[in-house]
Predict the structure of MerR family transcriptional regulator.
Amino acid sequence: MLNLEELEQLVAFKELGTLSKVAEKLLISTPSLSRSMQHLEEDFGVPLFDRSANRISLNKTGERAVEVARRILSTSQQGIKEVRQFEQSLKTITIASVAPAPLWSLLPQLASLYPNKQISHQICSIHKVMEAIEEETIDLAVLPFAYDQNQTTCLPYLQEELAIAVTTGHDLARLDAVSFEAINGYNFLLMDQIGFWNELVQEKMPASKFLIQSNRFEFEELAYNSTLPRFTTNLSQEREKIQDDRVMIPISDPEAHVHYHLVSLNPEINLTDLINV
């Protein structure tokens, strides 16, 4: 049976050209390496080398054996990776969410319900979350709509409503509500990594310019020291301080009112436990 360590030595011989260089690199003796090459010839059942008094080199069959060895080693490494990833998946709950707000309550709930599991999460576009569901690479998804396919379970979770925060002297401050059409053309401060909200506002407000920040501290500093409008939601207002001289105005468009749904692909995750916590 082929030995992976000996196959690695064969590939190294192809790359380095001499047994002494291979022995030096792999920290083994030259006689031991020579015996490994003989073992490989026995395992393949054919000569792999041309030998002379002071030299050994690969013959044409040996060259082909190197190609085979590389494929075997690559496959074995991939197999090891897959097995390790599977073992890790048994210990991990993987979540993909279209927005950060649902994770603020969901992650502590999961940690409490599954204390022996690691929790891995990512915030991504609706398309990416749907792709992860279809490919079954996650245990739990958060979508802004119901989903009931591919042997999944789905339950409503939280509601989030988008609003804007403007200074009391802003043109929009006197309004009780605004539409995307009404605020299209105004420039806004926008936090990056807020999932589908980011895509939505830029789609609905093509005439607006956005000062996008990826660092939360820098975003809050800019929000505090500038008069630029910003976006907020009913859920984010519980976590972030909005200045006293700012007025919150809800956005009236239906797209600004989202009912998140939890989608479970893992039969061990009982969504009812999460909804009722």
